[in-house]
Amino acid sequence: MKNFFKACLLRGTPSMVLALGAGFVMASSADIRAALGMGAAVLISMLLTSIVVSAIHKFIPAYAKLPVYLLIITGFVSIIEMVMEAFFPIVVDMLGAHLAALAVSAVIYRDAEEIADHSGEWTSIKAALTTGIFLTVIMVICALIRETLGNATLWGREIAFLANYKVTALAGAFGAYLVLACVLAAIKKLTGAEEHLEGEEHE
Amino acid sequence: MNIKHLLKTIAILLCIVAVFGVAMFGLNFLTGPIIEANNKGAEFAPLLAVMPEAENFEDVTATLAGVPESVIAIYKETTGKGYVVRAKASTQYSKEPMEITFGVTADGKICGIQLDVYTDSIDFRAKDANYISSYVEKDSALADIGTVSGATYSSSAFKTAVSDGFSALISNQLIAEGVKSDAQILQEMIPTLAPGMLKLEEATASGNIEKALKAGNDAGFAYVIKNGEASFLALVNASGICKVYDVAGADVTDAQSALADEAKAHAAASQKSYAEDLNTKITRLFADASEITALELNTFNTVVAGVSFKSNGADYYGFYSRSYGYNQMDVYVILDANGAIANLDAKAFFFDEEYFHVDDTVNLTDYKNGFAGQTEAGDNAMIAGATMTSNAVKQATADTFATFNAIKGGAQ
Amino acid sequence: MLTVEMILGILLAGLLSDNYALLHFLGTGAVMENERSTKQSVVLGLGTTLVMLITNAICWPLNTYLLEKVPYLQTMIFVLVVLIVVEVLHIIAKKVLDNYCHADFVKFAINGAVLGLCIHNVEHHLSYVETLVTSLGVGLGLMVTMCVFAKIKGEPVDEEAIPASFRGLPIALLTAGMIALALLALNF
Fold it and tell me: Please, which of B58, B154, B203, C142 could form a disulfide with B212 given CB 3.0 to 4.6 Å?
C-alpha cells in the first residue's frame, strides 16, 4: 500500500490531479457509498476514455481535440450514470449533479489529453487505473472519517455509541476541506514523498 | 480556430452524440424500466411509512374537486384501505413550507402521520414530542388536538394543513366527516367567550364537572359540565362570576344556576387572588390612597383584579391584567374617573428577553408615561423588535378599558 | 413574478451563501488551481458568467421542450451546448480582447460549475427568468472566488511556518475551507 501511494505521488500527477479533482473528491466524501460510487464512476470512465482516445487520437485534428475528448468522456459518464441510476439509485441521489459534472472534470480530460493522446494503449490504461484507484482510495478514507465521526453512520447504518458525539461540522462543507487536507498531509508524511512533491509545486 | 474549423468540430461532435445517443437508446431498454420502478418506489416510500399495510397507490389529486392549495397530492390505496394526503403549510417562521404526509383509513381515521420537511425556527417537536403522534386514530374532528404552547404558529399551521387534507377528502365524499362531541364543541368556544383565559391546563374534575380547565394566567376556570344528558360550558372569571353556555353558544346562566354554583365552588377552591398585590401597588403609586374597595369583574378577559380608590379627593380605578407576551406579564393600569390612564406599570416588561434586546434603546419611564391620558388602546404600546411584549401591554390596556366600561355600564 | 428583492436575493445567494466553487464543490478544482493575475481572473470570470448565461438560456428551452422523452441524453446535450457556446465565444473573444484570452479560456470555461448549474436549474424547475438570474449570480460568485484565490496565491507565504506535510495542496484546501466556513455562516 505504501509503495502504491508513493508510486502514485511520485508519478507526478496526484498533486495536480487532486487539486483539479478536489471538487468531486470532496463532494462525494460525505458517505462511503457515495465515495465508492464516485470512485467506480471515475475509474471506469477514465479507463474507457483512455482506450477510445488512444485508439482514435490520430484521426482527430488538433483544433478539435478538446471538445471531442470532452464529449467522449461525457458519453461514457452518461452511460455510467444510467447504469448507476438503475442499480444504485441511492448513490446517484447522493451525488446529484456531481456525477454528471464528472463529464467536464479536468482530471479525466487531462488523463485523456496528456497520456492517452501521446502514448500507447497500455500506458494509458495503466495511468487511468492508477489515478482512478488513487482517487477512490482517497475518497474512501475521507468518507470513512466523515461518515463515522460526522454523521455517526457507516454504510447508512447508525453507529449507536457514536450518536451522541457527532461532530456535525465534519459532515458539512468545511469538514470536506479539513478531512481531505489532513488525509493528504498524512499520506505525504507516511510515504515520505514530500520533498519530491514540493519540487514539483515550484515548477 | 476559425469558422471552418468550428463547423468541422461541430460535425465531429454531432457524430459522437449520435454514436452515444444510439448506445444510450439501446441501454435505456434495459435501465429505463428499472429507473421508473425505482422512482415510483421512492415516490411511494413516504406514503408507505404512514400506511404500512398498503399495497399500491394511485394519485387521484387531479380527479378531485375543490382541493385546497395547501394539499399537494392525494393518493388512493388501490385495494380500498384508504387515502394518503400530502399537504404543506408555512408560517412566518418557515424557511421552506413544512410538508406533511398522513394516511386516512376508509373509516376516516388517521392511521399514520409524519413531517417530511420542517425548517421552522421553532421546533414544536422539541417542545412536545408526542404532538404529532397525538393525531393518530383521530377523525376529521381532530378532537382534543390543540396547539403546542411556545410554538403556536407552527403547530396550528400543521393542524390547519391536516384539516385541509380532511376537508378535501370529505368534500369529495371519499370519507365521512368526523362528528365532534359536545365537549369538543364547547371547548372550542372558550377562546371566543373567554379570550382572557390563556394557556389552559387541565385540573381535577369532580361531581357533574366532566372536564375542568384552569387558565395558566389565573384569569379563571372553564368547565365542561353535565346536567343529565346535556353538556354545558361554565366559565368562572377571577372574581368568581360565572356564566353558563349551551352547545349552541347561548347564555343559559339563569336556567342552569345549579351548574353555575357548582362551577363557582370548584373555582373558588383554587382561584388565586391578586387583590392584595394590586392594593400594595396602588399604595406605592398613590401614597394617600384611601377607601380602596374591590370591584366585581364581569368580563372574561385578562384582568384578574380591580379596585376603586380615592386619592387627593379624586376617584380612581386600578386594574391588574395578566396578559401573555414573551412571558407571563403582570400589568397594572390605573384609570381616573373618566376612564383615562393615570398610570401604567408592570412587574417586569421582559424587553430584555425579546429577540432583539431593545432594553438598551427603550426608555422605560418615557414608555410608561406615554400611556397617560389615553382612553383606548393605541399603537403607542408597540415597540419594534419587542412585538410580543408590547402586544401584551396593548392587550392589557384594551382589556382594562373593556372591564372599566363594563363596570361603569353596570353601575349606571 | 419576480420582485427586485427576490432577484437581489438570488444574486447574493449565488455570490455568497450558495457559492458553487466553495460550498457546492462544482468548479472547485478550476478555481483553486487558478494562478492567473487578479485582472485576468476578472476577465475569465466574466467570460464564464457569460458562458453560464448563454448556455442556460439555451439549455432551459431544450430541456423543457425536447428532452422530456429522452432524459438520459440530458448531460450529453448540455455538454454539447456548453462546448459550442465556449468555442463560439472564444472565436469572438480572440478578436476583441486577445491579450487575456488564450486557449486558457476554453479550458477554464468548461468546468463543473457551468454544467452543474445547468443541471441544477433544470432539476429545481426554475422559471426562465429565475434560471437567468441564478446563472448571473453563480457566475459572479465564481468570479469573486477566483479573484480571492488569485490574490491569496499572489501573496508571499512563509513556507517555514507551515508543517512540512501540509505544504502545498493541504494548506490551500484548509484556506478554502475557512473561506467556506465563513460563507456557511450566511446560510443561517
Answer: B203
| Residue at B1 is within a domain | no
Predicted interface score ipTM higher than 0.95: no
Cβ separation B21–C73 shorter than 8 A: yes
Q: What is the mean pLDDT of residues B299-318?
A: 90
Say if B244 falls within a structural domain: yes
Cell of B54: 398498503
**B340 shares a domain with B230:** no
Distance from C168 to chain A by nearest Cα, in Å?
7
**How far is the CA of B141 from the CAs of A202, B67, B152, B248, B325, in angstroms?**
74, 18, 19, 17, 30
Check B6 against C91: CB less than 8 A apart.
Answer: yes
Residue B147 and residue B158 in contact, taking contact as beta carbons nearer than 8 Å: no
pLDDT digits (tens, 9 = 90+) for B360-376: 667 778 888 888 888 88
Please answer yes or no on whether C72 and B10 come within 8 Å at the CB atom.
no
Contact present, A150 and C149 (Cβ < 8 Å): no
pLDDT in tens, C64-119: 888 888 888 889 999 999 999 988 888 887 777 665 555 567 777 778 889 999 99
State how many domains chain C has.
1
- Chain C residues in contact with B2 by the CB 8 A cut-off are 91
- C11 within domain boundaries: no
Our count of domains for chain B comes to 3
Tell me the residue length of chain C: 188
Whose grid coordinates read 449520435? B18
Q: Which domain holds residue B212?
A: 182-270
**Phi first, then psi: what are they for B74, rounded to 5°?**
-125, 130
Tally of CA atoms within 13 A in the half-sphere of B296 that contains its CB: 8
Residue after which a domain boundary falls, among B270, B287, B308 = B270
Grade residue A201 by pLDDT with cuts at 50, 70 and 90: very low
Tell me whether residue B380 is in a domain: yes
Residue C3: inside a domain: no
Q: Which of B148, B171, B194 is the last residue of a domain?
A: B171
Q: What is the mean pLDDT of residues C138-160?
A: 86
**Within a domain: residue C9?**
no
In terms of domains, do B247 and B356 share one?
no
Q: Across residues C43-65, what is the average pLDDT?
A: 91
In this prediction, residue B303 carries a pLDDT of 92
Instruction: Work out the pLDDT band at A203, boundaries 50, 70, 90.
Output: very low
pLDDT tens, position by position, B63-72: 888 888 888 8
* Structural domain contains residue B219: yes
Q: Which residues on C lie below 8 Å from A108 (Cβ)? A: none
Give the side-chain half-sphere CA count within 13 A for B383: 27
* Same domain (yes/no): B329, B404: yes
Strand, coil or helix: what is A37? helix
Range of the domain at C108: 17-187
